[in-house]
Amino acid sequence: MKNGTEQPNRGTGMNLKVLEFVSKGRERVWFKIGGAAAISGIANSAVVIIVNAAAKNYSQLNFKYLVLFALCITIYIITFKFSFSRSTYLARDIVAQTRLRIADKLRRASLLSFEGMGQGRIYTTLSENTEIIFEASRLITATASAVVMLMLTFGYLAVISRMALWMSIIIIFCAVFVYISNQEVIKRYLTTATQKEAEFYTSLNHFLHGFIEIKMNRAKSDDIFNNYLKKFALSEKDFKIKAEAKLLTNQIFAQTFWYFLVASIVFLLPQLTKISSNEIMSSITVVMFILGPIGMIVGSIPLIVKGNLAVDKLQGLENELDKVDDLKATSERNPFAPPAVFAQIRLDDAGFSYSDPGDLGSFSIGPIDLKINTGEIVFIIGGNGSGKTTLLKVMAGLYYPKSGAIFMNNRIVDKTNYAHYRNEMAAIFTEFHLFDRLYGVKDVDLDRVDEMFRIMELMDKTDYVDGEFTNLNLSTGQRRRLALIIALMEDKPVIIIDELAADQDPEFRKYFYEVLLKDLKAQGKTIIATSHDDRYFHVADRVVKMEYGKIVKEK
């Protein structure tokens, strides 16, 4: 496995991993669905036999065949509807359950592992791959019915004329081979077209986001338009035209193949074997009925193969998430819950390191010795890349120390209580996400929310109505203030703030440092914050300076 992608198992061809995946734990229900699909195939093939039998006595109405025909059609409709609707329901249910199961495993994953997976892979697995599995599993039912019908109908054709059977099998096999070969060419054209389309939109993204620079530089404008946008757009067009032409050829070929098969039975078969006109007409009737099932089977093969690959990717992600579950060792007993009162966080020789995304090296912090006492305001300062944010994530329990230890209230923080330790803190990092609701906050005090809006100068920017914020389309500074409101509403004893004041106007920045932080301290809150504002360092009880991942000064 490399770069967060898994290699699919060999032999994903026409094995039915999709069926195994959706039927796990529900074998009895799928056995009933399979039985209904088989009955629908039998009823469908019986129609062919009845029609041929009735055609031999076409001079007068035969109620026996009419009743049998109606009975078989009724059985076919009922059983096919049951098998298809039930398989659709179960497939949709298993997709929903799978998405929920993966989402639950995701929230249990460690932050470092989550960051390494990539959101694109997660979105693809939860959307595209699960939908492919749904479509493939639903299609298996109809395909099973078509296979049963095809086998029985071929058996009936052998009774009519073995030569007609072998002629049909040979011609159908050759036609299917050509059809699938053409589909592979179409797939290659469309894959290339999709790649060119992605490259076009990548260039268009640069074009749109760099519009000012493009307007300022004619050479840059000509280069990105002529050598990238135009090139990719025309290339995409050419490959899609080729794919459409090949698709049209395949459609015409499929229609022509049927004419060729009928013509072979009418003109060639009598030259190869002794056969009556009634047998020829019966053979033609059978051929007319088998074209539908053949189309269903051939059309299902690519999607079932994709479904098998999707199952591999889905199971690969789930297996990976199982390995990085950082809650499985968590004890039900919370040693930090009331009546325990937060007193101190202590880092003893704590160190952490990770490889950077570009595999150009690694970054590490530590060993670090640091104590944070209850009710303190501690500023962590240092230049960009000094390790401030990484240290905050270690202190927040988001990254586990690879050496040394963390203590809270003189109790070591380990895998049995990390989740409980994290729950004692509210954090706002620079890459924060702004939620639309106060998730996890019970009995929201609306008066306090309004007061927070007033303090943060957001009264005319957003509101909290019917359990959600009315507007999240705010400036960067306003978004940070709203994130702080959410963190304060959680009412945790420790608040971690990463450069929150950086994008604020001078007036609010002064208020944040000299009024708000002091008010929080007066409420007994412990504040751990990164800062570059040396004008306000006096607000802190202690200032901790970092360089190259180590604490170099503390005052």
Short structural description:
This protein is α/β, with parallel strands linked by helices and 555 residues long. The chain has helices spanning 17-23, 27-55, 63-108, 111-117, 119-160, 162-209, 211-216, 218-272, 277-323, 388-395, 418-422, 446-455, 476-489, 506-522, and strands at 344-355, 362-373, 377-381, 403-408, 411-412, 425-428, 464-465, 468-469, 494-498, 526-530, 542-547, 550-554. It contains 14 helices and twelve strands.
Characterization of this structure:
- The structure is a single chain.
- This protein is α/β, with parallel strands linked by helices.
- The protein has 14 helices and 12 strands.
- It has helices spanning 17-23, 27-55, 63-108, 111-117, 119-160, 162-209, 211-216, 218-272, 277-323, 388-395, 418-422, 446-455, 476-489, 506-522; strands at residues 344-355, 362-373, 377-381, 403-408, 411-412, 425-428, 464-465, 468-469, 494-498, 526-530, 542-547, 550-554.
- The strands form 3 sheets. It has a 6-stranded mixed sheet with strand order 6-9-10-3-11-12, sandwiched between helices. A 4-stranded antiparallel sheet has the order 2-1-4-5, covered by helices on one side. A two-stranded antiparallel ribbon has the order 7-8.
- The longest helix is centred in the middle third of the chain and has 55 residues, at 218-272.
- The chain starts with 16 loop residues before the first helix and ends with a strand.
- 28% of the residues are buried.
- The model is unreliable at 1-14 (pLDDT under 50).
